[in-house]
Each structure stands twice: as structure tokens, then as C-alpha cells.
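User: Quick sanity check before I run a bigger batch. Here is a single chain. Can you write out its predicted 3D structure?
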Amino acid sequence: MKLTFTLPCPPSLNKYYRKLRNRIVISKEGQAFLTHVSLIVANRRYSFKKEERLRMDVVVYSKSNRAYDLDNLFKSLCDSLEKSGVIVNDSQFDWLTILRGPKDKDHPRCEVTIQPLPIG
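Assistant: Done. Predicted structure follows.
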């Protein structure tokens, strides 16, 4: 089973976490992203089982041509998929790809495809 979602662009790690006293916590922006993704995928008809090995392909359509690190987007994206119940744990991913799509000022987004890897 292959699942495809169009999600908002996740916050970078620089905005996803905040230091609160002596602890690192998910920021308000990070919490808002997690909640938003949960609402988007709430009507999914499938979630991957714990023993499944997975592949995730992501295309990011940013609102500007500003330079940013693509790898900084993975953690918040994986956390949101885990919290929403699409996956059990982000350690299930054996294959991750992320591509920078063209700028889309009017509709910045991430297009995410998750599918099981063949066993073998």
C-alpha cells in the first residue's frame, strides 16, 4: 500500500525545538505543525505496521528561493507522521529521499509518499 500526502512545509530544526529552562522541548510552532499534520491525515484509511520497513520520498515546494538545509526538515516531518499514527516509529524508514522542488509562493508544501519496501 502506498500513501501520498500533501502537507505544509515543516519547520526547520532551528524553529522546531526550544530550550526551556534546562530542557529541550518542541516549540509552539512545532506543536502547531504536529497538530496540523494530524488533522490532514486523520481520514487516512491505512497505517503502517511496526514490522514494516518503509521508504519515504519528499518533494519540498518552498515559498521563496531563500537557502535552507533540506535535512533540517526531516525530523519534524517524521515526528508528525509518528504522532498522527501513519507510522509507529521513524526508525522504520530504511530509504529516505528529499528533493527541492521549484518555488511556489502561493502554495508552499511538501508532497510525501510512503510505501513499504519489499522484504529481502
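The beta strands are 3-7, 17-20, 23-26, 54-61, 93-100, 109-116.

User: Great, the batch can go ahead then.
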